[in-house]
Design a protein that fits this description.
- The structure is a single chain.
- The protein has eleven helices and 17 strands.
- With 386 residues, the protein is of the alpha+beta class.
- The chain folds into two domains: 213 residues, 2,3-Dihydroxybiphenyl 1,2-Dioxygenase, domain 1; 144 residues, Roll (2,3-Dihydroxybiphenyl 1,2-Dioxygenase, domain 1).
- The chain has a nine-stranded mixed β-sheet with strand order 6-7-8-5-1-4-3-2-9. An eight-stranded mixed β-sheet has the order 11-12-13-10-14-17-16-15.
- The longest helix has 15 residues.
- The chain is globular, with a radius of gyration of 20 Å.
- The structure holds fe (ii) ion.
- The site of fe (ii) ion has 6 residues, from strand 10 and strand 14.
C-alpha cells in the first residue's frame, strides 16, 4: 500500500466507527469515461497527464459497438470508451452530457454480495452479477445506479491474473510519455441538483453504509456572488470518499448550477488524484499543456504563514515555488495539504481534475474555498455564465 493511502487513513478509525461493514470496499478499481473520440482522449491523458497504455478492446478484439482504451498511472486506471455506431447508449450518453464519467468502479472481494446488499437496501440495479472469463481467470462484475446516469460497478478480480478485464488485450504502444507522479484517487466529487444533497447523503448512508464525516454549508462556501453546499461521504476504511455538492442561492449563478446546466443533470464534478511531490507534478503538467485555474493574488500567499500557524514548522515546500505554480495551501488539526485545480478537461464546463498532496491533513481545503471559487468565477465570467 502506498504511503499516500496511509496518510489518508491516519487517525480516521474513530470517525468511521459508525460506518457499516456490509459493503467492504478495497479501493477504486477504475473510472470509465464515455467520450466522443476515445483514441484522441487516450492520447491527451498520456501526453498531458502522463498515463501509460495498459489495455484495449474494440473491433480487433471482437467488439462491434464500442472501443475502449485503458490507461494506468501507479494505482489509477482510467477507461476511455466511445461508441462505434449511432444506436449506442454510449453515444446517447455523450450526446446528452458531453464527455464525462459513466462508471466509478469499486474493487471488492465479493461482487455478488455487494450487489445483493446494495439492491436490497434500495439501489437500482445497472448490471446483475456477471461472470466473465478468459485464459487468465475470471472476473465477477455487478453494478448499481447512483446520481444522474452515473453508475458504480463492483469488480471482483481475486481469481484473475490478466492485464485488466476479460475481453481486453494488452495495449503495447511505442509512445510512452513519462508519468508525472500521480498515485491514486483521493476522492471523487458528485454534483447533484437543487435540494438533492441530503437525498444522496442518505442514499450513501443507507445503501452503501457510508458515513458523513465533513459538511460545509453555504455560509462557509460562498463568495460575493455564488454559493454551494457540500457533504463528504466516506466508506468504513476511508479509502473511498465521495463529497456531494448542491448549488445554493447567491447573487449570481453558482458553479454547480453551471455544471448541471452543461452536463444536463447530476454527474461527477472532479477527480482528485494524489501525488507525494506536488511541485514536480504540477510543473510537469503545466509544461505538458494542462491548464489550471488562475492563481490567487499574492495577498493569499502572504497570509499562508498566519493561516498555517504551527504547521509552518513542518512545511517542507518552498512557498515561493508554491506561489509561482499557483498551488493552494490549507491545514487542519492533523496537518496541512497542498492542492490545485485544472480547468475543465472538455469543451463543456463540466469535469475537472484536482491534484492533491496530503501532509497529514484529512480535510478538503476549506480554507481555500473562497480563493478557489473566486478563480472559478473569473472563468465563468469569461464564459458569460456567471
Ligand atoms: Fe476536491
Amino acid at each position: 500500500m502506498s504511503s499516500g493511502i496511509k496518510n489518508v487513513e491516519y487517525g480516521l478509525e474513530k470517525i468511521f466507527e459508525g460506518a457499516q461493514d456490509f459493503l467492504p470496499l478495497l479501493g477504486t478499481d477504475h473510472v470509465e469515461f464515455y467520450v466522443g473520440n476515445a483514441k484522441q482522449a487516450a492520447h491527451f491523458y498520456k501526453t498531458a497527464f502522463g498515463f501509460q497504455s495498459l489495455a484495449y478492446a474494440g473491433l480487433e478484439t471482437g467488439l462491434k459497438d464500442r472501443a475502449s482504451y485503458v490507461l494506468k498511472q501507479d494505482k489509477i486506471r482510467l477507461v476511455l470508451t466511445t461508441a462505434l455506431n449511432s444506436n449506442s447508449p454510449i453515444g446517447e450518453h455523450v450526446k446528452k452530457h458531453g464527455d464525462g464519467v459513466k462508471v466509478i468502479a469499486l474493487w471488492v472481494d465479493d461482487a455478488r454480495k455487494a450487489w445483493e446488499e446494495t439492491t436490497t437496501r434500495g439501489a437500482k440495479s445497472y448490471m446483475e452479477p456477471t461472470v466473465e472469463k478468459d485464459e487468465h481467470g475470471e472476473v465477477v462484475r455487478a453494478g448499481i445506479y447512483t446520481y444522474g446516469e452515473t453508475v458504480h460497478i463492483f469488480v471482483e478480480r481475486k481469481n484473475y491474473k490478466g492485464t485488466f478485464l476479460p475481453g481486453y488485450r494488452e495495449w503495447k504502444s511505442d509512445y510512452n510519455p513519462t508519468p508525472v507522479g500521480l498515485k491514486f484517487i483521493d476522492h471523487m466529487v458528485g454534483n447533484v441538483g437543487w435540494g438533492e444533497m441530503n437525498t444522496w447523503v442518505k442514499w450513501y448512508e443507507d445503501v452503501m453504509g457510508f458515513v458523513n464525516f465533513l459538511s460545509f454549508d453555504d455560509k462557509q462556501i460562498h463568495t460575493e456572488y455564488s454559493a454551494l453546499m457540500s457533504k463528504v461521504m466516506s466508506n468504513g476504511n476511508g479509502r473511498i470518499k465521495f463529497p456531494i455538492n448542491e448549488p445554493a442561492k447567491g447573487n449570481k449563478r453558482s458553479q454547480i448550477e453551471e455544471y448541471l446546466d452543461f452536463y444536463e443533470g447530476p454527474g461527477a464534478q472532479h477527480i482528485a488524484v494524489a501525488t507525494d511531490d506536488i511541485l514536480t507534478t504540477v510543473k510537469q503538467l503545466r509544461e505538458r499543456g494542462v491548464e489550471f485555474l488562475s492563481a490567487p493574488p499574492q495577498a493569499y500567499y502572504n497570509e499562508i504563514p498566519t493561516r498555517l500557524g504551527n504547521h509552518m514548522k513542518v512545511v517542507k515546500e518552498d512557498l515561493t515555488e508554491v506561489a509561482k505554480l499557483g498551488i493552494l495551501v490549507d491545514s487542519d488539526e492533523e496537518g496541512y495539504l497542498l492542492q490545485i485545480f485544472t480547468k475543465p478537461v472538455e469543451d463543456r464546463p463540466t469535469l475537472f481534475f484536482e491534484i492533491i498532496q496530503r501532509m497529514g491533513a484529512r480535510g478538503f481545503g476549506a480554507g481555500n474555498f473562497k480563493a478557489l471559487f473566486e478563480s472559478i468565477e473569473r472563468e465563468q465570467a469569461a464564459r458569460g455564465t456567471l
